[in-house]
Amino acid sequence: MLQSIIGPIAGLAGSWLDAKSQAQAASAKLKLTEAEAKAKIMLSKETSVADWERIMAQGSQSSWKDEWFVIVLSIPLVLAFIPGTEGWVDSGFEQLSKAPDWYFYSLGIAISASFGVIGVQKFFKR
């Protein structure tokens, strides 16, 4: 009689354990699939950025735009140290303070594109 009661209970417990084990395996598989998908997205993003930077670097090998931006941005710095030209620097910055925001955003985008977005981001993180 005891055996007739224990048998079904053991079978029920065994099937409950199997279901629990399958649920845990499915949960683990789902987490692994999510992690793999996130890894692919991150790799794709990093590859895209690296490819874009490489293309921009190749395109700027024969370009003077980087040097031009450096020269133009250096003019006020140099003039500030030449006696008699300080007024020009002050006057120039005073005039620039009246410029619309879109002008500075456009200038920032142009400089970022010239030097590379990654380089600009690293500069401003310092």
What can you see in these coordinates?
The chain is mainly α and 126 residues long. The chain folds into two domains: 1-59; 62-126, no CATH class. It has helices at residues 2-59, 65-79, 86-96, 101-115, 117-125. The longest helix is centred in the first third of the chain and has 58 residues, at 2-59. The radius of gyration is 32 Å and the shape is rod-shaped. The relative contact order is 0.05. The model has no long low-confidence stretch (mean pLDDT 78).
Give a short summary of the structure:
This protein is mainly alpha-helical and 126 residues long. It folds into 2 domains: 1-59; 62-126, no CATH class.
What is the general shape?
A: rod-shaped
* Residues in helices, as a percent range: over 70%
The amount of beta strand, in percent, is: under 5%
What is the total domain count? 2
User: C-alpha Rg, in Å?
Assistant: 32 Å
* Poorly predicted residue ranges: none
Order of helices and strands: HHHHH
Mean pLDDT across every amino acid position: 78
- Which structural class is indicated by helix and strand composition? mainly alpha
The largest sheet, given as strand count, sense and whether it forms a barrel, is: none
Count all strands and give the number: 0
Number of helical segments?
5
Distance between the termini: 80 Å
